[in-house]
């Protein structure tokens, strides 16, 4: 029986993986025990936050192959060939994504620790449904723990961003 291979081989417990991060091809050297969150942060993508390390808080959320994923639970070597969007890939200070603008305008950003995960989860929602109901917004924000607010302003921000994006004809925005 022939053994299946992924094309990846660890050398001294380290894999060299190729992946797309925010639209750019990158190569990371990752330990066989390392998680994607730690690798991203080590390579300068500090927007994904290290919160609970158990997948409960959502602060490490990234878009992984088109869907929100918890980077603290993904073995880094399994990201070989993946397309990843972090908060750094969504907008800039000079040209923020409408979701980022809406969160600021709605006063939904307090300490900011949960915001990258909330915005990326919301982005995926607006990509699949440009006109979500309040219940759908709540469902997509579920799993993103915020210790500063009651989530009212974040829900308001997602509604405002949805309206902005529909008006601009720009939903995916990456």
Walk me through the structure:
The chain is of the alpha+beta class. It has two domains: 14-89, Beta-grasp domain (Ubiquitin-like (UB roll)); 98-167, DNA polymerase, domain 1, CATH 1.10.150.120. Helix content is 31%, strand content 16%. The protein has five helices and five strands, in the order ββαβββαααα. The chain has helices spanning 36-42, 98-105, 115-128, 134-141, 152-168; strands at residues 14-21, 24-31, 61-64, 67-70, 83-85. The protein has a five-stranded mixed β-sheet with strand order 2-1-5-3-4, covered by helices on one side. β1 and β2 form a beta hairpin. α2 (98-105) packs across α5 (152-168) and α3 (115-128) crosses α4 (134-141). It is elongated and about 50 Å long. The relative contact order is 0.15.
Summarize this entry quickly.
This protein has 174 residues and is an alpha+beta fold. Helices cover 31% and strands 16% of the residues. Strand 1 (14-21) and strand 2 (24-31) form a beta hairpin.
Q: Could you please say which CATH topology of the largest domain applies here?
A: Ubiquitin-like (UB roll)
**Alpha-carbon distance between the two ends:** 44 Å
Q: What would you call the quaternary organization?
A: single chain
How many beta-strand elements?
Answer: 5
Which descriptor suits the 3D outline?
A: elongated
Radius of gyration: 17 Å
